[in-house]
Every structure is written in C-alpha cells, then in structure tokens.
Amino acid sequence: MLQMYDEPVVENEDESTTWIALSDLMTGLMAIFLTLSIAILVNQNAQRDEIVQDVQQALKKSGLEIETDPRTGDMNIAADFAFESGKAVLKPEGKAILDQLMPVFAKAVFDELSGEQQEEITRLIVEGHTDSVGSYASNMQLSTERANAVLSYIDTQMPDFPHKAELLAKMTAVGRGENDASPTENPADRRVLLRFDFKQPDWTKQPKKNQK
C-alpha cells in the first residue's frame, strides 16, 4: 500500500511563502528607491533651473547682450568675430566681450546666488570650438588653445574685479574641436562657450526645497 508523505510538501510551501514575501519586500524597497530618486532629480533640476535663471536675470539687468541658452545657461562669450580662422588669439572684439561679461558674471555667481546654489556648481567650463576646416586632431588642439586663450586673458590681462580669483578657481578649459561645427566653413563656429558643470546627485540626502 502506498504511503503519503505530507512533511516535504509543507516544507516546500513554507519556502515558497518565504520567497514570495522576500520578493514583495524587494519590490517595495525598489519602488521607494525609485520614488526618492525621482524626487531628488526633480529637486536638483529645479535648483539648476533657478541658478540659470538667476544668472540670466543678472546679465539682463546689466544690459549685456550675450547669446545664452535659456535651458542650460550656456553663454557664447566669444562670438564669431572673436577668433580668426585657424588662430587662437583673441581679437579686440572678443576681449571687449570678456571685459563686459566677466565682472557681471562673477558678481551674479558669488554675490547673488546662495551658498547652497554655489555648491551645486562644481566647475565653470570654458569650452572652445572650431569650424570644420582642417583635420580633426588639429581642430581639437585649436579649440583647446582658444579656451585657454580666454582663461589666460581673464587671468593676466583683465584688471582685477570682485571675485576674480574665485571665478578662475572654478574655471576649466576644454576643447570640442569641430564636433558641433557646420559641414561647411562657418565663422560662427569659431567660438568659446561658458557653461555650468553641476555636481552629481547625492542619493544619501532627502530632497528639500532650495532656500536663498
């Protein structure tokens, strides 16, 4: 006669119940983590938008006509006439732009932004660009030289202004070469952008309202 063994079945049922409970717990924890992550990103994006808007407002109040991306705050600090083709020497027109912009920009960042907002800005990227004429390697080098030319002019040729040292300490020169250039030669591609580099999200902190 066949004998029935119920004990193993009960053990298997207990194990299944345990795994289901663990799976539900992990799913709940993941949902909480995703909710917090989204809240942190939304809060940080709001802070960054406010930084960009505050700096743009400061420039506007000073009457500066600087081409600025309203979404990112990227500024075309050296227009198409700032560099000649194949050269990294700032023309007088480019220097005049820097003379007007840098004191106002430094004041906006270090006087008008809160300490918390300033901490969000890890670096101020001075980004050089070229047109599409020439080789990729030579244009990459040229674009870096143009970015460095801007930094050098601010450091050694511009008269002192409030927060000049703090501004230079935040600045980093990089080159983009012809990566964003038009397919054919375009003087407008010979430019330098000033852009914000923001710190990465801190997932250990709870999102909070930005206060000035």
From TrEMBL:
Extract the InterPro entries matched here: Bact_OuterMem_StrucFunc, OmpA-like, OmpA-like_sf
Entry's transmembrane regions: 20-42
OmpA-like domain location: 70-212
Asked whether the UniProt record includes Ligase among its keywords, one would answer no
A single GO CC term for this protein reads:
membrane
Q: Which Pfam families match?
A: OmpA
Q: Protein name, please? A: OmpA-like domain-containing protein
Q: Which organism is it from?
A: Simonsiella muelleri ATCC 29453
